């Protein structure tokens, strides 16, 4: 095994997890300060959004905007929809994001960008590697029951995290160091949580447990060289008003991961490839 050369190029995998995903802005800030060169981003859900801002060279501006959000402002971004199809339309969020970065074609970006969505009917992942970056983000963030799904090319698309919360398998630059952000880490201790749960909350926690297992199995199979793990209970899905705290958390967790995972875990040629 060889030590990582910080000047070697990086494929950065950004996971799904609602407001926890704002930690990924701090991850990027730390990697850049440490001298890593990111030339590929693969993201799903909030990771697709943060990755898009980075690919457009506007991730600092995204972080600055997120830090200004209050609970009231987050609520005002919610454009409620017919609850039969999803709680929110999602248009207001994307329209507001135009203040941060413009819509562009993915193929015109200065680095390789992939957003991952889920075809719910066929139960398969759908990759966006060309076309409107805003269309890619919208499909990838369509959390079932929260944002309305997206009709696209005779498919019905929802959040990429449904099937793959940390899409390491879609890295295309096999020669790169692979750094993944897992937003489904084991929750920090929360004194006696389970006995206090009502039936709905118990179902929710069971779903989260399945996500954690799925993320862990994916990471064990595809073995990124570095993994930054964010505890699952570090933020709720709508806690965007805590963005400054979450960005700082992502920065600190990345520093810790780079120090503790100082060697490449597996030669690149030994990792499985995506189908």
From TrEMBL:
Keywords: Hydrolase, Lipid degradation, Lipid metabolism. GO terms for biological process: lipid catabolic process. Pfam families: Patatin. A motif (DGA/G) lies at residues 159-161. The keyword Lipid biosynthesis does not apply. Gene3D superfamilies: Cytosolic phospholipase A2 catalytic domain. InterPro entries: Acyl_Trfase/lysoPLipase (IPR016035), NTE (IPR050301), PNPLA_dom (IPR002641). The keyword Lipid metabolism applies. A motif (GXSXG) lies at residues 43-47. The active site is at residues 45, 159. GO terms for molecular function: hydrolase activity. Residues 12-172 form the PNPLA domain. PANTHER family: NEUROPATHY TARGET ESTERASE/SWISS CHEESE D.MELANOGASTER, NTE FAMILY PROTEIN RSSA. This is NTE family protein. It comes from Sphingobacterium allocomposti.
């Amino acid at each position: 095994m060889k030590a990582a050369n910080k000047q070697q190029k990086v494929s950065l995998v950004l996971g799904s997890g609602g407001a926890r995903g704002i930690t990924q802005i701090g991850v990027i800030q730390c990697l850049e300060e440490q001298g890593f060169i990111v030339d590929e981003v693969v993201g799903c859900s909030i990771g697709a959004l943060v990755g898009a801002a980075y690919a457009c060279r506007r991730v600092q501006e995204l972080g600055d905007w997120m830090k200004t959000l209050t609970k009231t402002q987050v609520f005002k971004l919610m454009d409620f929809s017919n609850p039969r199809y999803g709680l929110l339309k999602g248009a207001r969020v994307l329209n507001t994001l135009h203040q941060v970065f413009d819509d562009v074609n993915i193929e015109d970006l200065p680095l390789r960008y992939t957003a991952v969505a889920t075809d719910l009917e066929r139960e398969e992942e759908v990759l966006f590697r060309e076309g409107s970056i805003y269309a890619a983000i919208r499909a990838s963030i369509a959390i079932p029951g929260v944002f309305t799904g997206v009709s696209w090319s005779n498919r019905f698309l929802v959040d990429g995290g449904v099937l793959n919360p940390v899409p390491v398998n879609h890295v295309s630059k096999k020669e790169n160091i692979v750094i993944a952000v897992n937003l489904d880490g084991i929750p920090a201790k929360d004194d006696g949580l389970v006995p206090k749960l009502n039936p709905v909350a118990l179902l929710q926690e069971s779903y989260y447990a399945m996500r954690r297992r799925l993320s862990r199995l994916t990471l064990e199979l595809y073995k990124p060289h570095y993994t930054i793990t964010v505890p699952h209970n570090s933020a709720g899905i709508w806690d965007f008003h805590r963005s400054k705290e979450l960005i700082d958390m992502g920065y600190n967790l990345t520093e810790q991961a780079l120090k503790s995972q100082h060697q490449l875990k597996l030669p690149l040629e030994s990792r499985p490839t995506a189908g």
